[in-house]
Amino acid sequence: MPAPPTLLEPDLLAADPAGLADVGRLVTELTREAAGALRRRTGPLPALTPQELARLLDAQLPEGPLPRTGGGREAVLALARSYAAHTVDLADPHAAAHLQPPALSVAAAADVLASVFNASVDTWDSGPYAVEIERRVVRALAALAGYGPEGDGVLTPGGTASNLQALLIARDAALGARRDVRSAGLTGLAAEPVVYCSELAHFSVARACAVLGLGEDAVRLIPADGAHRMRTDELARALAGRRENEVPIAVVATAGTTDYGSVDPLPEIAALAARHGVRLHVDAAYGGGALFSDRMRPLLDGIEAADTVTIDLHKTAWQPAAASVLLARDGRDFAATTGLRVAYLNPDDDGAAGYDGLLGHSLATTRRADALKVAATFLALGQEGIGAMLDACHDLALHAAGTVTSHPRLELTAAPTLTTVVFRYLPRARGADADAVNGALRRRLLARGTALIGRTDAAGGVRLKLTLLNPQATKNDIDELIAAVVAAGSAVEEAA
Ligand SMILES: Cc1ncc(COP(=O)(O)O)c(C=O)c1O
Question: Which family does it belong to (predicted)?
């Protein structure tokens, strides 16, 4: 085994010429090991229980203190082999559980470069080109969303973080720039902040309210209609009927609900929010990918009326996580909340001379050059390339819905809007507990590792979910996946 590196080795540091060459060699070796392990795989998950998997790792990374001395690159190659053998394989066409796509190779490769240079976008001098790339990427996305020249944005670590920052902006806009909830009387009984969203909004909305000191009670859940879209008559009633001491912070519409992919009626919601003078945030973490597709774009009509928009490029733009973006129709929203001048980072005179980074846009300080992989993707595939991927996944979802509908043992819960199909297995035995059978059949698939599907509670019980984000999967793959679900359901029933 080669000796572990010492501090004197010329290739120890990634971003010098010898180091970069070594990164190239190491990445080649790591990916070769990973490819070998991938070829031996039989499904998207390892056919192991969580306990068996933990025991396997014991041999490589035992619990306890850190290794005192390093094992050199052999140790890393072994880790790459076992990682590729045992982690999730999202490129497997039978992986369809979560809003977690297989990453694009061009984006993954560009991400290596981001790691090599380790630039940060908080200040100009910590990552000059990276800062400018992020500025251009977010502005291009702002324009794609229909915003004018004042539109701006920032990359964040996820939809949860983007929603939090959007509600921070909304809170400060509603309560005043001092961000002092006491000054608005909010610790007393007087004023009550409220945030309106549909009952199907992502939990991060309520979590953001908790973090922002508004309390989860601030959330007013508006019922959804039969198509899983926010009911605008109920929103109108809630807005018009609010008590005098209620301070509306924002309406949050969802463009692509987590469970169904349904899109709230954005134009009507925007009109209501405007009529009542309330800010509108659109959580398009999932549905934002429709911006790239001519076919799906009409789903997002009205999004340009939102004050802020969350788009997760690590969902429907096939980026390695994390690559969420928060867009604002008026870029001054960032300065009003996170705009901060810090003597050691971005003093005023540096900023005035153009030496400005993105610290003032973000809740983070050190921040990766995540825009590099996004820019690489846009340059390589263009808007049409990404849009075509979403269209392909949409086609798969329509096909899956048709297959489910025509199968006597399956029941479709919701027709797909984007790329999600919600359904359940119907047990043969009368009186069988359908929820228990559906839960057990999914675990059976997990244990065998050959198919990975999602689950949720919907329509009063356990439902199964295909979140189809592999544009290279075929209709035949989808039919096999559905057949595996039915076979697992039968097996669960037989075993009962
Ligand atoms: C609609 C919606 N918003 C926000 C999020 C949170 O995104 P993240 O997991 O990137 O924090 C999700 C995650 O699935 C989502 O579906």
Answer: Belongs to the group II decarboxylase family.
Count structural domains, the chain: 3
The CATH number linked to 183 is 3.40.640.10
CA of 40 to the centre of ligand 1 (A): 32
Q: Which one of 100, 155, 160, 467 would you pick to mutate in the ligand 1 pocket, going by the greatest count of ligand atoms within 8 A of its CB?
A: 160
- Compute the residue count for the chain: 496
The answer to whether residues 331 and 393 belong to one domain is no
Ligand 1 pocket test: pick from 258, 314, 325 the residue with the most ligand atoms within 8 Å of its Cβ: 258
230: DSSP letter = B
Q: Which atom of ligand 1 lies nearest, measured to the CA of 201?
A: 1
Atom of ligand 1 nearest to the CA of 162: 11
Tell me which residues have their CB closer than 6 angstroms to ligand 1: 99, 158-160, 163, 202, 204, 254, 256, 258, 283, 285-286, 312, 324
The token pair at 30 is: 């790591």
- Residue pLDDT, tens place only, 390-439: 999 999 999 999 999 999 999 999 999 999 999 999 999 989 999 999 99
Q: Could you tell me which of 296, 300, 307 has the C-alpha nearest to residue 264?
A: 300
Instruction: With a cut of 50, list the residues of the chain below it in pLDDT.
Output: 177-179, 185-186, 188-189
pLDDT, residue 178, reads 45
Residue 38 shares a structural domain with residue 139: no
Query: What are 353-365's pLDDT values in tens digits?
Result: 999 999 999 999 9
Give a yes or no: residue 312 inside a domain: yes
Distance separating alpha carbons of residues 321 and 166, to the nearest angstrom: 20
Nearest CA residue ID for atom 5, ligand 1: 159
Same domain, 356 and 416: no
Q: Whole domain around residue 299: which residue ranges?
A: 120-368
Ligand 1 centre to CA of 310 (Å) is 9
Strands 324-328 and 308-312: antiparallel
Q: What is the CATH number of the domain that holds 390?
A: 3.90.1150.10
Q: Indicate whether 110 belongs to any domain.
A: no
Statement to judge: residues 361 and 437 lie in one domain = no
Q: Are residues 219 and 328 in the same domain?
A: yes
Residue 404 lies in a domain: yes
For residue 243, give every residue at least 6 positions away whose Cβ sits within 8 Å of its Cβ, in sequence order, or none. Answer: 192
Determine the pLDDT at residue 59. 87
Say how many Å lie between the CA of residue 485 and the centre of ligand 1. 26
- Residue 386 belongs to a domain: yes
Distance from Cα 299 to the centre of ligand 1, integer Å:
19
Reading phi first (left if > 0) and then psi (alpha if -120 to 50, else beta), residue 117 is in: alpha
Q: Is the peptide bond before 401 cis (omega within 30 degrees of 0)?
A: no
What element of type H or E holds 155? strand 152-156
Q: Looking at the structure, do residues 281 and 396 belong to the same domain, yes or no? A: no
Of ligand 1's atoms, which has the minimum distance to the CA of residue 254? 1
